[in-house]
Amino acid sequence: MAAAVIDGRASAASLRAQLTADVAAFAAAHGRPPGLATVLIGDDAGSQVYVAGKQRACTEVGIRGFDHRLAADVGRGKVLALLDDLNADPDVSGILCQLPVPAHLDGLELTDRIAADKDVDGLTVASAGRLALGLPGLRPCTPTGVMLLLAEQEVELEGAEAVVVGRSNLFGKPMSQLLLAANATVTICHSRTADLAASCRRADVLVAAVGVPHLVQGTWIKPGAVVIDVGMNRLESGLTGDVDFAAASEVARAITPVPGGVGPMTVACLLRNTLRASEMSLAAAGRGGASVPSGPGAGPTAR
Predict the structure, then answer these.
(1) What is the pLDDT of residues 16-59, one digit of tens each?
(2) Binding site annotation covers 168?
(3) Where does NADP(+) bind (predicted)?
(4) What is the distance of C-alpha 117 from the center of its chain?
(5) Residue 46 located in a structural domain
(6) Is 218 assigned to a binding site?
(7) What's the CA gap between 68 and 261, in Å, rounded?
Protein backbone atom coordinates (compact mmCIF):
# COMPACT_ATOMS: atom_id res chain seq x y z
CA MET A 1 0.00 0.00 0.00
CA ALA A 2 1.33 3.42 -0.93
CA ALA A 3 2.24 5.78 1.89
CA ALA A 4 -0.15 8.47 3.04
CA VAL A 5 1.06 11.86 1.79
CA ILE A 6 1.32 14.39 4.62
CA ASP A 7 -0.23 17.62 3.36
CA GLY A 8 1.85 20.42 4.86
CA ARG A 9 -0.07 23.09 2.96
CA ALA A 10 -3.35 22.07 4.57
CA SER A 11 -1.77 21.87 8.02
CA ALA A 12 -0.18 25.29 7.62
CA ALA A 13 -3.48 26.80 6.42
CA SER A 14 -5.23 25.41 9.49
CA LEU A 15 -2.55 26.80 11.78
CA ARG A 16 -2.71 30.21 10.11
CA ALA A 17 -6.49 30.31 10.49
CA GLN A 18 -6.14 29.66 14.22
CA LEU A 19 -3.38 32.26 14.48
CA THR A 20 -5.58 34.86 12.78
CA ALA A 21 -8.17 34.40 15.50
CA ASP A 22 -5.56 34.35 18.28
CA VAL A 23 -3.82 37.49 17.00
CA ALA A 24 -7.15 39.33 16.80
CA ALA A 25 -7.92 38.31 20.37
CA PHE A 26 -4.50 39.46 21.52
CA ALA A 27 -4.86 42.83 19.79
CA ALA A 28 -8.33 43.34 21.28
CA ALA A 29 -7.08 42.51 24.77
CA HIS A 30 -3.88 44.57 24.68
CA GLY A 31 -4.55 47.39 22.25
CA ARG A 32 -1.90 46.40 19.72
CA PRO A 33 -1.01 43.37 17.63
CA PRO A 34 2.22 41.39 17.89
CA GLY A 35 4.98 42.80 15.67
CA LEU A 36 7.62 41.05 13.58
CA ALA A 37 10.73 42.91 12.40
CA THR A 38 12.71 41.48 9.50
CA VAL A 39 16.22 42.68 8.69
CA LEU A 40 17.46 42.09 5.14
CA ILE A 41 21.01 43.07 4.22
CA GLY A 42 21.94 43.28 0.55
CA ASP A 43 20.03 42.40 -2.60
CA ASP A 44 20.12 38.61 -2.74
CA ALA A 45 17.12 37.70 -4.88
CA GLY A 46 16.20 34.58 -2.93
CA SER A 47 16.35 36.41 0.39
CA GLN A 48 14.17 39.19 -1.00
CA VAL A 49 11.52 36.64 -1.96
CA TYR A 50 11.67 34.97 1.46
CA VAL A 51 11.38 38.24 3.37
CA ALA A 52 8.54 39.47 1.21
CA GLY A 53 6.70 36.21 1.84
CA LYS A 54 7.16 36.52 5.59
CA GLN A 55 5.93 40.10 5.62
CA ARG A 56 2.93 39.15 3.50
CA ALA A 57 2.14 36.27 5.86
CA CYS A 58 2.24 38.69 8.81
CA THR A 59 -0.33 40.92 7.16
CA GLU A 60 -2.59 37.97 6.42
CA VAL A 61 -2.87 36.95 10.09
CA GLY A 62 -2.91 40.48 11.54
CA ILE A 63 0.67 40.72 12.80
CA ARG A 64 2.31 44.12 12.28
CA GLY A 65 5.35 43.92 10.05
CA PHE A 66 8.51 46.02 10.35
CA ASP A 67 10.54 45.62 7.16
CA HIS A 68 14.15 46.88 7.48
CA ARG A 69 16.39 46.74 4.40
CA LEU A 70 20.05 47.67 4.47
CA ALA A 71 22.61 48.09 1.70
CA ALA A 72 25.00 45.23 0.97
CA ASP A 73 27.98 47.33 2.08
CA VAL A 74 26.44 48.45 5.38
CA GLY A 75 28.86 48.58 8.29
CA ARG A 76 28.75 46.12 11.17
CA GLY A 77 28.09 48.88 13.70
CA LYS A 78 24.98 50.09 11.89
CA VAL A 79 23.47 46.61 11.77
CA LEU A 80 24.19 45.98 15.46
CA ALA A 81 22.69 49.36 16.36
CA LEU A 82 19.51 48.52 14.44
CA LEU A 83 19.20 45.17 16.20
CA ASP A 84 19.71 46.87 19.56
CA ASP A 85 16.96 49.37 18.72
CA LEU A 86 14.60 46.56 17.75
CA ASN A 87 15.42 44.68 20.96
CA ALA A 88 14.36 47.77 22.92
CA ASP A 89 11.22 48.53 20.88
CA PRO A 90 8.08 47.37 22.76
CA ASP A 91 6.07 47.22 19.53
CA VAL A 92 8.45 44.60 18.13
CA SER A 93 7.66 41.15 19.52
CA GLY A 94 10.02 39.18 17.29
CA ILE A 95 13.12 39.85 15.20
CA LEU A 96 14.46 37.90 12.25
CA CYS A 97 17.80 38.62 10.56
CA GLN A 98 17.61 37.03 7.13
CA LEU A 99 20.55 34.76 6.31
CA PRO A 100 22.90 34.63 4.51
CA VAL A 101 24.44 38.06 5.03
CA PRO A 102 27.23 39.65 2.93
CA ALA A 103 30.69 38.18 3.44
CA HIS A 104 32.08 41.10 5.47
CA LEU A 105 29.46 40.46 8.18
CA ASP A 106 29.19 37.57 10.64
CA GLY A 107 25.73 36.02 10.45
CA LEU A 108 26.21 34.21 13.76
CA GLU A 109 27.16 37.42 15.52
CA LEU A 110 24.17 39.28 14.12
CA THR A 111 21.74 36.50 14.96
CA ASP A 112 23.08 36.26 18.49
CA ARG A 113 22.59 39.99 19.00
CA ILE A 114 18.83 39.39 18.98
CA ALA A 115 17.31 39.15 22.46
CA ALA A 116 16.39 35.54 23.24
CA ASP A 117 12.79 36.48 24.03
CA LYS A 118 12.49 38.05 20.55
CA ASP A 119 14.42 35.31 18.75
CA VAL A 120 11.53 33.97 16.67
CA ASP A 121 13.96 31.89 14.58
CA GLY A 122 15.17 30.17 17.77
CA LEU A 123 18.80 30.39 16.64
CA THR A 124 20.62 32.43 19.29
CA VAL A 125 23.04 30.79 21.70
CA ALA A 126 20.58 31.45 24.52
CA SER A 127 17.70 29.84 22.60
CA ALA A 128 19.84 26.81 21.73
CA GLY A 129 20.81 26.48 25.39
CA ARG A 130 17.20 26.68 26.53
CA LEU A 131 16.27 23.95 24.09
CA ALA A 132 19.17 21.73 25.13
CA LEU A 133 18.28 22.10 28.81
CA GLY A 134 14.54 21.71 28.27
CA LEU A 135 13.79 25.22 29.48
CA PRO A 136 10.89 27.27 28.09
CA GLY A 137 11.75 29.36 25.06
CA LEU A 138 11.24 29.96 21.36
CA ARG A 139 12.07 26.97 19.18
CA PRO A 140 13.37 26.93 15.58
CA CYS A 141 10.50 27.12 13.12
CA THR A 142 11.16 24.23 10.75
CA PRO A 143 11.81 21.60 13.46
CA THR A 144 8.71 22.82 15.28
CA GLY A 145 6.72 22.44 12.07
CA VAL A 146 7.96 18.86 11.74
CA MET A 147 6.85 18.08 15.29
CA LEU A 148 3.40 19.49 14.59
CA LEU A 149 3.08 17.36 11.45
CA LEU A 150 4.11 14.25 13.40
CA ALA A 151 1.52 15.07 16.06
CA GLU A 152 -1.19 15.44 13.41
CA GLN A 153 -0.25 12.02 12.07
CA GLU A 154 -0.54 10.66 15.63
CA VAL A 155 3.00 9.31 15.46
CA GLU A 156 3.97 7.78 18.79
CA LEU A 157 7.44 9.17 19.46
CA GLU A 158 7.99 7.82 22.96
CA GLY A 159 10.34 4.88 22.65
CA ALA A 160 10.49 5.18 18.85
CA GLU A 161 13.73 5.03 16.87
CA ALA A 162 14.18 8.43 15.23
CA VAL A 163 16.98 9.10 12.76
CA VAL A 164 17.88 12.62 11.66
CA VAL A 165 20.08 12.82 8.57
CA GLY A 166 21.95 16.12 8.84
CA ARG A 167 23.56 17.90 11.80
CA SER A 168 23.18 21.58 10.91
CA ASN A 169 22.72 24.19 13.60
CA LEU A 170 19.70 25.50 11.71
CA PHE A 171 17.79 22.23 11.60
CA GLY A 172 19.47 18.91 12.37
CA LYS A 173 20.61 19.63 15.91
CA PRO A 174 17.39 21.32 17.14
CA MET A 175 15.30 18.66 15.40
CA SER A 176 17.17 15.99 17.34
CA GLN A 177 16.64 17.89 20.60
CA LEU A 178 12.89 18.16 20.03
CA LEU A 179 12.61 14.45 19.24
CA LEU A 180 14.66 13.66 22.34
CA ALA A 181 12.35 15.85 24.43
CA ALA A 182 9.47 13.71 23.14
CA ASN A 183 11.30 10.62 24.50
CA ALA A 184 12.32 9.20 21.13
CA THR A 185 15.63 7.37 20.86
CA VAL A 186 17.54 9.62 18.50
CA THR A 187 20.40 8.98 16.09
CA ILE A 188 22.03 11.86 14.20
CA CYS A 189 23.67 10.93 10.90
CA HIS A 190 26.06 13.06 8.88
CA SER A 191 28.75 12.99 6.20
CA ARG A 192 31.03 10.84 8.36
CA THR A 193 28.43 8.22 9.30
CA ALA A 194 29.93 4.82 8.45
CA ASP A 195 26.81 3.10 7.09
CA LEU A 196 24.10 5.66 6.44
CA ALA A 197 21.73 3.19 4.79
CA ALA A 198 21.85 0.83 7.77
CA SER A 199 21.16 3.66 10.20
CA CYS A 200 18.18 4.82 8.17
CA ARG A 201 16.72 1.30 8.02
CA ARG A 202 16.36 1.30 11.83
CA ALA A 203 14.21 4.41 11.85
CA ASP A 204 10.56 4.42 12.83
CA VAL A 205 10.75 8.14 12.06
CA LEU A 206 13.26 9.26 9.44
CA VAL A 207 13.99 12.96 8.94
CA ALA A 208 16.25 13.97 6.04
CA ALA A 209 17.78 17.44 5.75
CA VAL A 210 21.11 17.56 3.93
CA GLY A 211 20.39 19.15 0.56
CA VAL A 212 21.34 16.17 -1.59
CA PRO A 213 18.66 15.23 -4.13
CA HIS A 214 17.26 11.72 -3.61
CA LEU A 215 20.03 10.73 -1.23
CA VAL A 216 17.67 8.55 0.79
CA GLN A 217 16.61 5.59 -1.35
CA GLY A 218 13.55 3.42 -1.05
CA THR A 219 15.65 0.46 0.11
CA TRP A 220 16.79 2.56 3.09
CA ILE A 221 13.27 2.87 4.49
CA LYS A 222 11.98 0.61 7.25
CA PRO A 223 8.55 -0.76 6.29
CA GLY A 224 5.87 1.33 7.99
CA ALA A 225 8.21 4.21 8.85
CA VAL A 226 7.18 7.86 8.78
CA VAL A 227 9.47 9.84 6.46
CA ILE A 228 9.92 13.61 6.76
CA ASP A 229 11.78 15.19 3.84
CA VAL A 230 13.13 18.64 4.70
CA GLY A 231 15.42 18.88 1.67
CA MET A 232 14.72 21.52 -0.96
CA ASN A 233 16.75 21.02 -4.12
CA ARG A 234 16.18 22.84 -7.39
CA LEU A 235 16.79 20.70 -10.48
CA GLU A 236 15.95 21.34 -14.13
CA SER A 237 12.86 19.21 -13.60
CA GLY A 238 11.75 21.34 -10.62
CA LEU A 239 11.98 21.17 -6.84
CA THR A 240 12.77 17.85 -5.23
CA GLY A 241 13.70 16.59 -1.80
CA ASP A 242 16.46 14.53 -0.20
CA VAL A 243 14.32 11.39 -0.38
CA ASP A 244 13.42 9.36 -3.47
CA PHE A 245 9.73 10.07 -2.99
CA ALA A 246 8.32 7.47 -5.39
CA ALA A 247 10.45 4.61 -4.08
CA ALA A 248 10.02 5.58 -0.42
CA SER A 249 6.24 5.86 -0.83
CA GLU A 250 6.08 2.15 -1.62
CA VAL A 251 7.53 1.29 1.79
CA ALA A 252 6.70 4.07 4.27
CA ARG A 253 3.45 4.53 6.20
CA ALA A 254 3.45 8.29 5.65
CA ILE A 255 5.72 10.76 3.88
CA THR A 256 6.00 14.48 3.24
CA PRO A 257 6.24 15.66 -0.39
CA VAL A 258 8.57 18.34 -1.75
CA PRO A 259 7.22 20.88 -2.32
CA GLY A 260 4.09 21.05 -0.16
CA GLY A 261 5.31 19.19 2.92
CA VAL A 262 7.45 20.80 5.60
CA GLY A 263 8.05 24.11 3.80
CA PRO A 264 4.64 25.72 4.39
CA MET A 265 4.87 24.92 8.09
CA THR A 266 8.06 26.95 8.52
CA VAL A 267 6.45 30.35 7.91
CA ALA A 268 3.33 29.36 9.86
CA CYS A 269 5.51 28.48 12.85
CA LEU A 270 7.38 31.79 12.50
CA LEU A 271 4.05 33.58 12.91
CA ARG A 272 3.22 31.31 15.83
CA ASN A 273 6.53 32.16 17.49
CA THR A 274 5.86 35.88 17.01
CA LEU A 275 2.55 35.61 18.85
CA ARG A 276 4.18 33.53 21.55
CA ALA A 277 7.00 36.06 21.93
CA SER A 278 4.44 38.80 22.51
CA GLU A 279 2.81 36.68 25.20
CA MET A 280 6.18 36.01 26.82
CA SER A 281 6.87 39.75 26.91
CA LEU A 282 3.58 40.45 28.66
CA ALA A 283 4.13 37.62 31.12
CA ALA A 284 7.58 38.97 31.97
CA ALA A 285 6.03 42.37 32.60
CA GLY A 286 3.38 40.79 34.83
CA ARG A 287 0.49 41.75 32.57
CA GLY A 288 -0.58 38.28 31.48
CA GLY A 289 -2.48 37.68 28.27
CA ALA A 290 -4.28 35.06 26.25
CA SER A 291 -2.94 31.53 26.53
CA VAL A 292 -0.65 30.57 23.66
CA PRO A 293 0.33 26.90 23.29
CA SER A 294 4.01 26.53 24.07
CA GLY A 295 4.45 23.98 21.31
CA PRO A 296 6.68 20.94 20.90
CA GLY A 297 9.64 20.86 23.23
CA ALA A 298 8.95 24.31 24.66
CA GLY A 299 8.93 23.16 28.27
CA PRO A 300 11.03 20.98 30.58
CA THR A 301 12.43 17.81 29.09
CA ALA A 302 11.17 14.58 30.63
CA ARG A 303 13.70 12.13 31.99
Answers:
(1) 999 999 999 999 999 999 999 999 999 999 999 999 999 999 99
(2) yes
(3) 166-168
(4) 16
(5) yes
(6) no
(7) 29
Is 173 noted as a catalytic residue in this protein? no
The whole-angstrom separation of Cα 111 and Cα 92 is 16
Same domain, 147 and 117: no
In this structure, the answer to whether residues 174 and 87 fall within a common structural domain is no
Q: Indicate if the pLDDT at residue 293 is higher than 50.
A: no
What's the rounded Cα separation, in Å, for the pair 202 and 197?
Answer: 9
Show the beta-strand stretches assigned E in the chain: 4-5, 35-41, 64-70, 94-97, 161-165, 185-189, 205-208, 226-229, 233-235, 238-240, 254-255
Query: For residues 187 and 163, what is the distance between their CA atoms, to the nearest angstrom?
Result: 5
131 with 154, same domain: the answer is no
User: Are 231 and 215 within one domain?
Assistant: yes
Please give the residue range of the domain that contains residue 197.
Answer: 141-262
Question: Among the options 22, 98, 229, 244, which is catalytic?
Answer: 98
Distance CA 118, CA 137 (A): 10
Residue 53 in marked binding region: no
The answer to whether residues 38 and 102 belong to one domain is yes
Residues 108 and 170 in one domain: no
How many C-beta neighbours within 10 Å does residue 234 have?
Answer: 9
Let me know whether 126 and 160 are in one domain.
Answer: no
Catalytic (active site) residue 106: no
Q: How many CB atoms lie within 10 A of CB 81?
A: 12
In the residue annotation, 244 being an active-site residue is answered as no
Q: Is 234 in the same domain as 170?
A: yes
Q: Which of 54, 118, 173, 222 is catalytic?
A: 54
Q: What is the mean pLDDT of residues 101-123?
A: 97
